[in-house]
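Side project, low priority. Logging it here so it doesn't get lost.
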Amino acid sequence: MRNTFIYPEGPIYSFILSFALIFSVFIKEKKLSSFTVLILMISILTTGSSTGFIIIAGVIFLKKVIDVKDKKMSMVILFISLLILCVIAIMVVFQKQVDNGNSLSVRLEDLNIGFNIWFLHPLTGVGYGNYSELLSHMNLSRLSFNGNTGFSSGLALIAAYGGTPLLVNYLLPIFNGVKAGTKRGIKYFIFSLLVLFLLVTTIVQVNYIILASLVYLMTLNNKKEIFKCKNT
């Protein structure tokens, strides 16, 4: 049983909660022990989404890194945290393969399909909304009765539909956020990478939250940001 709230499936609700957690901890700088953050973490766990589990682990470890004032020690903790996070991610993926290998294989296949199509049509893609082209590359077992013909990676779908021009529109703001993180604070660096992770693992490329986040990341190196987090 999964907690889906008003959404059709757990992963979508997990995305909403995961983004709220990332924004609360790294942009609004709430403590991990705050009521809001704890409620968000508990809610993510109830969705049963492996992506949400990885986000929780990543937020906890990376927040601890930010809280360390000694830069050298911070880098050591960051390195250790990344290793631990990788181990957790591998364990979650392995468990998902044991419990539901079909789900994992579908995710991997979708990434492969999306970027293979992008490689074949790098300049224009196959056209926005041309889902039939993606279906033609899917395993035949997914096209059978009760097969899983849905797509699971927003970034791979962007690459397939619009080619490099559309892909750049999504990646440029994220790279800008990473760049801002090297100048204005590591919290922007972490926020940008976690947004990218959500975009890769969830089909949310046209979600208002993602689009607004990309606009926000694009303004981080400007003298005047379009909006301040305390006013959102």
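Brief comment: The radius of gyration is 18 Å.
Revisit when time allows.
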